[in-house]
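Before relying on records like the one below, remember that each one covers exactly one chain. Contacts with other chains, cofactors or solvent are not represented anywhere in the record.
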Amino acid sequence: MIRALIEFSLQQRLLVFALVLFLVGAGLFALTTIPIDAFPDLTNNQVNIVTEAPGMAAAEVEQLVTYPLESGMMGIRNTEEIRSISKFGLSIITIVFDDSVDTYFARQVVNERLQEAKTRIPQGVEPTLGPVATAFGEIYQYVIEGKNHSAMELKTLHDWTVRPQLRTVSGVNEINSWGGLVQQYQVLVEPERLLAYNLTLHDVFQALAQSNSNFGGSYIERGAEGYTVRGLGRFEAANAIEEVKNVVIKSATGVPVLVKDVASVEIGPAVRQGAVTKDSKGEAVAGMVIMTKGENSKAVIERVEERVKTIEKNLPAGVKLTPFYEQTTLVNRTIHTVATNLIEGGLLVITILFLFLWNIRASLIVACIIPLSMLVAFIGMKAFGISANLMSLGAIDFGLIVDGAVVMIENFISRLNVVSKNSPTQSWDETRKQVVRFSALEVSKPIVFGIVIIIAVYLPLFALQGLESRMFRPMALTVVCALIGALILTLTLIPALGSLVLKPAHHEGHEMVLMKLQAIYRRVLKGVMHWRVLTVGLALIIIAVAVISMSRLGTEFMPQLDEGALLIETRKLPSVSLTESVEISTMVEKVVREFPEVETVVTKIGRPDLATEAMGIYQGDVYVILKPIEEWKTVKTKEELIEAFDKKLKDVPGVVYNFTQPLAMRLDEVISGVKADVAVKLFGDDFDALQREAERIKAVLDRVPGHADVQIETLGGAGELHIEINRTEMARYGLRVEDVKQVIETAIGGQAATEVIDGRRRVNVVVKLPEARRRENQAILSLLIPTPGGERVALGQVATLKIAEGPEVVNREDSQRRIVIQSNVRGRDIGSFVAEAQSLIDKEIKLPTGYYLTWGGEFENQQRAMKRLYVVVPLAILLIFMLLYSTFNSLKYATLIIVNLPFALVGGVAALWLRDLNLSLSSAVGFIALFGVAVLNGVVMVSYINQLREQGLSVHEAVLDGASSRLRPVLMTALVASLGFIPMALSTQPGAEVQRPLATVVIGGLITSTLLTLFVLPTLYEWVTRDQPQEEALFAENLNPTIES
């Protein structure tokens, strides 16, 4: 098949060129249509159930809402985890599915279970499914600003003008908002007036509900015309306050009692659970665009920005939308980093090719493989739905891609030079075609075998699951597609072009340099082979040192991507009011704004309008948007800036901080439910016991070097006003708890009796006590409750009030309550930090019966990934060994070549140590890629030595001659592969943090594995074969067929 493909390419060159043009067109189309992201979306496959339960405390939400719904979700097939959060008025349940389950099918299954489960929760509480989005879906965040507009006006503009228009943008799933004041028509009832007229809140509520409706009287005819009968009884927005005031509640002795007789009516803000501040200048209104899962973030943001321009034209003068965080900046920076590294790597590869080949035409032919194979990769990415991002493109090494083309073109030149010397006057057109044909066939099998080896080392990555699969499978698919494209082009386009444009070239100076280099190498190799025991012994010592050093390297899940922004999570006392929380957040912003490195600061406090996040009033996310690092003045690195922030923010009392980045925080939270590097999850039933044991564990973590931002997840401390029912008194009056519940929910919580329609706006008419009276115990106790007998009973006659403390939040995981003690790690790797912390906790903490702990956060991801890599890496080595054995049909030679891997390991470990980098998933993939190239060089060396032995040379001479002859291809392969990664390893641009360990490992490993290939491998070859007769030497006909002269 390979032979036929080469023959076809030489006979049908025009067709080959036409197919290449078609490839260019298809590749460019794929390139312009594939999604572009900064990073692959690592969010697990999950469905959220969001249930708002107004007025319910956290403990009640857990018992009455969360637990029944959670129980209904148990037993769904292919679920990996169920966790939940119960807070005041809110329940969020997260069901994590296996990645193989279709998202929409998962939602359908959950929805079916939900229909049955919601019959077991209180009436009026309606669970809904969360948006079809991921942690990376929060693509565009903005504030709406206007100097001469109030917070209520800006909120109204956002919710009824901006939000509806942004929701229609293709790819947008939802628009969420924080801050501002939601407008209401408030009927503020005075308890004393109600008492004077012997009325209840229920009377007021019913009167309003029954006094705001249109009605119809069907259709009438008058003469030749027909009329639809309409009764216009709804409140008119222009005069709504007066109309509400004049609603009749009842008529007493012929005198009507109006709403205005017992209440004041005004426009006011709804009770809110969140706020936004900006640049320490006070409150603001913020919005967030949530992208539909699977969409192209860059394209969606572009469409959003276009729509924003249109919206701003229709906003009042002075009002504008100002983005403060959008992913386009990060996407553009990381893609620029990837593109720069690829271009610079490609130029280095082409330079090395020219220096070794000393033939500009040959170098350009090889160079054309680079863009063409990338176009094949883009076509593959389009077909498999892979986005162009830091990971999918970050592992592509042009040195590996052109390796086969280098071998083929080098053989072309060598053969053409030989033929031109022997027949200098003959015609070149047909001769060149025949020489190219024979040269291509000569090396086609080793080329195919070499690329198959490199592809094989990536195959085990497809066995990864979960988070690791989402991270590295796209990368493996992209690399494999590029390599397959390079292989096909090497067997088709390279012969076609070579037979057209290559000419023999004799460069005496260049050839003399190579010959001198070979002579020096031969002399050194002869000495090394003479001292083979010392050589092999030294090699074993170096390998042993590397293995020991590897066990002492720091470990982490992945290097943290620099997002160009920081997120400071703030946590105050759980009992703090929203007003106080806003003031404290403003103080925090003022401190942060003092740093010249900061561009802008926006703080989101509490939960948004759509309860997709379970943050309390005491919590805040401070978005710190940074200037480009080139403009920084007081610090040089992000770590130094965080330390400076941490030190300065200690001046703000009563606040606990956690420093992270926006995407990193959302990813950690969505994947593991924890916003930190390391989390100790403590499980048990009793709140007090959980809190007590958590304090003990925190005290241990505080003593571990490297700890930062150690916090206990808030559990208790929420202030509660208890209305304690006296059931004996209730029975005397024939009252039920439901009667009291309705009065309290209306008077204190505020209930919408009806609404005023103003164009497309809907404004609630809410009945409640005045704000000042809501805070007074006496006003609450004087509320009248209607009895079945028609009497009115004051609440104080059947209940008492008491200030108490209750749980702020109840977290559950796999049907058990849990509390988290979390910590970030600074100045140390996560692996060693957790190992020391685990040792101390195991030694000092003895948990009560029924309580247990697990470790989570980013560390959990790291542990899971490393366990799978312990399977994947040996599997890759086994695949390589099987390929070697199938090629050489000899355990001895397969083992001899596989010895390259420990030496490759030596260089990789040394490079990580020298650059102070941790062992991570990125570096692990670097080792996997390195193994393929390391083995390839060994195959080149051993196969050629075997060929010389077949021709009758002794083992010693075959080793010396074979190693000397293979010096150029071995060096060329190693140099193009390693230099292709040099820009990646040295780059300091955003995104380079993730690529750096991978590139460092490949470069360091290739240095040592090349030294082994050139010195230790020949020495070992002679040692293990010196006593064998020549007839037993392995023939290399499968790899190195010769051409008859």
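The chain has 37 helices and 30 strands.
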